DNA sequence: ATTTAAATACCAACTTATTGGTATTGTGTA
DNA sequence: TACACAATACCAATAAGTTGGTATTTAAAT
């Protein structure tokens, strides 16, 4: 067991106020030492090169390099660093994906700071912290609106403002294929326009950065 | 001059972590007493009915009732409450509008927490705090990409996923008129699809809540 | 009094998106 | 092996969005 003052925490979030907020919560509750912060994944990875970090708290919605990409890289390069993911949304599929990647915890931002404290303490004791998954375990239901990998890929390109034609060129696909995927996404999310598609997809956390 | 411990502050933000963050900054720097917080404008207005508040710190991007709408209501109903607006973006036109409405300060979230502290201190001394406007004063430039009130109104409806036809019905306009406004928005923001229009408009802070 | 800008409205040609189908291939699983 | 599903591709009809114009009215500013 590492003493609290020797438990090194790094934070990545593109909102400075949230960085400061987390930093304060960590300090006030003596959960560890914040050895640095970052506004995106690249900065966090740079930080990890120079400093010994036990826990990385990462926002999933960051520009440049989002939380999922960053988490994958960290697990690959620094398997000893525990990862706690913060997100605005409660997307069960995303949480499951992150758990498989190897992150230690997932917290929705709509939760109180108490949960952050609990999450850090739990991870510090080398346990996983996925309160949303546990809840889901009780009220288990097969989600029909799951999007496939390809659908998510195309969705993120649509969200960036690309047309079906442009996407088909970029992915070396037929325009028809892209339109089929688009259509299936719309059916699954029960919408009937591109804007609604993107709005709902963001709401449900299928698109990580706008 | 009100003593710090008697300076009552209310905070409105839909992110609990930011609420906690601001609360901590206020406490740690002994800037006042946080007498309550809210997740949207309605909650904040309810709070003001029951508690004496000297300063309301309001996030501009909130669901249900956004920061601008909330600020207007507060100025109307509680003209003695000072307002500090927080935003993710640096939209000079928005800041000017807020200043005219009567808010006392505007802070971009990309700024450090030092600025929040400075902002609260400045407003407490009954001065305005608009660091972005002051900067703008030096590098003054007439912005050609200003959107009109009507354009902003239509833009926000487009962002909600409504079609031109639906918008024309809702606003009792010809569909042609809506399409003209849409076209002019797209020209001004230099885009050529709805999704790009909404993306850029959000980036520039023309759309306050998604 | 003249100019400028916002808001309104219309037309036509063209491009994309949307809806509702069908169909094939490969992969992994019951 | 048979089944389910993801990924691919195609067709056709309809709806919506995009582009490039013109034009009128009203209100505010010079």
From TrEMBL, chains A, B:
It comes from the Bacteria. Gene3D superfamilies: 3.40.50.2300, Winged helix-like DNA-binding domain superfamily/Winged helix DNA-binding domain. The keyword Phosphoprotein applies. The modification 4-aspartylphosphate is found at residue 59. GO terms for biological process: phosphorelay signal transduction system; regulation of DNA-templated transcription. It holds the Pfam family GerE. GO terms for molecular function: DNA binding. Keywords: DNA-binding, Phosphoprotein. Residues 140-205 form the HTH luxR-type domain. Residues 8-124 form the Response regulatory domain. InterPro entries: CheY-like_superfamily, NreC/VraR/RcsB-like_REC, Sig_transdc_resp-reg_C-effctor, Sig_transdc_resp-reg_receiver, Tscrpt_reg_LuxR_C, WalR-like, WH-like_DNA-bd_sf. This is Response regulator transcription factor. It comes from Flavobacterium franklandianum. The lineage of its organism: Bacteria, Pseudomonadati, Bacteroidota, Flavobacteriia, Flavobacteriales.
